[in-house]
Amino acid sequence: MRCGSMACCHRRLPEAEGTVVITRPLAPADTRPQVMKVDLEEVLAQPGRLLSPGRWNKPQVREVTVGDHPVILKDWRTMARWLRPLARHLARREARIYGLLQHLESVPRVLQVGDRTLVLEQVPGRRISRLRGHRAAATAAQALEEIVARIHAAGVYHFDMRKRDNILVTDEGKVYLIDFTTSVAPRHYGPLGWLLRPVAALVDRYAVLKWKNALAPEVLSTSERRLLRGLDRLRPWRKNN
Asked: Alpha-carbon distance 241 to 219, whole Å?
């Protein structure tokens, strides 16, 4: 039966008082269970386990248990009071980024968005760097390349994949991209977006090639090796993964 309204073509994330609600189109690729319901006030009231203390321009990150399910709380309220408008902007900006990617299984799902807070599903995985020398390394490297192509197709560029904490691999071998704090969506930058897009794409491409070279150099093509050497020469001060 054909949909008769825009409302039935989107899945709404759970809504709580005082929160922004993100809608996302249904996609055949998204086969995960229905998003769990989370009470924002309950999450904020729990101390949880500190994962990152945050900085002046970055949120504090905690793991909080809701019922039997751990979730991730990103909290920009820990930023200085005089930076409250910036904190609110950063939280909403990252929520918009996630909103563009909620049809992808390789990205954590948003559970709630509040004023300077963001609640995400937890991804149980290990850093991709721990796959060095493992027989699954080549598969993970190629999966990462495919995931990056999908987020680029959705109009998002991660911009921070050189950080090993931002790429996780589950016990089943599934690769996830997390932490879109520094990510960009050129469509949000108006006319400047067409200038930002090729730069952002190259930054992500460089990160993918570095990981392929670190995990499974045999899967690099001749042209990829040439590009990687050229980019390395432009950034000689950077450490290898």
From this structure: 17
Range of the domain at 115: 6-121
Q: Are residues 218 and 117 in the same domain?
A: no
Give the pLDDT of residue 27. 36
Q: Residue 223: helix, strand or coil by DSSP?
A: helix
Do 20 and 92 form a contact (C-beta atoms < 8 A)? yes
DSSP secondary structure letters along 77-146: GGS-GGGHHHHHHHHHHHHHHHHTTTT-TTSPPEEEEETTEEEEE----EEGGGGTT-TTHHHHHHHHHH
To the nearest 10 degrees (0 to 180), the angle between helices 193-215 and 137-153 is 170
Residue 11 lies in a domain: yes
Of 121, 136, 155, the residue that ends a domain is 121
Q: What is the mean pLDDT of the chain?
A: 85
239: tokens are: 């450490």
- At 188, the amino acid letter reads H
pLDDT of residue 167 exceeding 80: yes
Listed in sequence order, the DSSP H helices in the chain are 40-45, 84-99, 137-153, 193-215, 222-234
- List, for residues 132-156, the tens digit of each pLDDT value: 888 899 999 999 999 999 999 999 9
Residue 145 burial (CB count, 10 A): 17
Report the number of distinct structural domains present in the chain: 2
> Which position has the higher pLDDT, 183 or 37?
183
Each residue's pLDDT tens digit, 83-108: 999 999 999 999 999 999 999 999 99
For residues 58 and 131, membership in a common domain is answered with no
